[in-house]
Amino acid sequence: MLQIKVFVFNPVRENTYLLYDETKEAVIIDCGADSHDEKKQLSDFIREKGLALTHVLNTHLHFDHILGNGFLYETYGLKPEYNRADEAMPGLKEGVVKFGRTIFKYEPVFAERYIDDKETVAFGASRLEALLTPGHSPGSLSFYSEKDACVFTGDALFRSSIGRTDLWEGNHETLVQSIKTKLFNLPDNTIVYPGHAEPSTIGAEKQYNHYV
Ligand SMILES: [Zn+2]
């Protein structure tokens, strides 16, 4: 049985998900930990629960989802895994992002292993299937657990909303297609854990999401 711990990190209020099961093996999806305090909160939780982190996953490479990758690499020796298409994103190597009036700095860490559509990420007694759901960014992935009936959608699908498509290589038509053909194919009771704000279900989004 998958346990899901949510941290809301950095000024953009990004959802960082720590997933673990009875074996105590864990993966992290989109580590947005920015401040010293946020990093400590995360590593304290991992230590107190006695978890062994096995994968660092990214749904996509927008800065608010990757701010903590450098910390995870330094602390646990794990490099992030993500879809290769996002790696061409401008500015990624500089590690400096201006967002409104705030400047974010991070240690860029790049994948040694990329994740393709339909690939499985296994840890402990759990597995996640990667679904390529481009549109918000070209390499956007969602991570689906059939057994635990949940999907981590990054910034593709939100509760009653969808991701913005005015950023680098964003495409509204592509995003709507991704949601319709990949995410809305999942069972209605699947819980949606988005990159920002509150969870939902596939059934509720099919019924109430006006953007799709
Ligand atoms: Zn994003």
Quickly describe the structure.
The chain is of the alpha+beta class. The protein has a single domain, classed as Ribonuclease Z/Hydroxyacylglutathione hydrolase-like (Metallo-beta-lactamase, Chain A, 4-Layer Sandwich), CATH 3.60.15.10. It has helices spanning 36-49, 63-66, 69-76, 172-181, 202-208, and strands at 3-9, 14-20, 25-29, 52-57, 80-81, 96-99, 102-105, 120-123, 126-132, 141-145, 150-154, 157-158, 161-162, 191-194, 200-201.
Largest sheet: 6 strands, mixed
What oligomeric arrangement do these chains adopt? Answer: single chain
Question: CATH-wise, what's the superfamily?
Answer: Ribonuclease Z/Hydroxyacylglutathione hydrolase-like
The end-to-end distance, rounded to whole angstroms, is 31 Å
CATH topology grouping: Metallo-beta-lactamase, Chain A
Q: Architecture in CATH?
A: 4-Layer Sandwich
Count up the domains: 1
Q: Helical region count?
A: 5
Radius of gyration: 16 Å
Kindly report the spatial arrangement of strands forming the biggest sheet.
Answer: 8-9-10-11-14-15
Helix content: 10-25%
**Poorly predicted segments:** none
* Beta strand %: 25-35%
Give a written overview of the molecule:
The chain has a 6-stranded mixed sheet. A 5-stranded mixed sheet has the order 1-2-3-4-5, with helices on one face. Strands 6-7 form a two-stranded antiparallel ribbon. The chain has helices at 36-49, 63-66, 69-76, 172-181, 202-208, and strands spanning 3-9, 14-20, 25-29, 52-57, 80-81, 96-99, 102-105, 120-123, 126-132, 141-145, 150-154, 157-158, 161-162, 191-194, 200-201. The mean pLDDT is 97. It is built from 5 helices and 15 strands. Strand 14 and strand 15 form a beta hairpin. The protein is of the alpha+beta class. Bound molecules: zinc ion. Residues 60, 62, 136, 155 line the site of zinc ion (ZN).
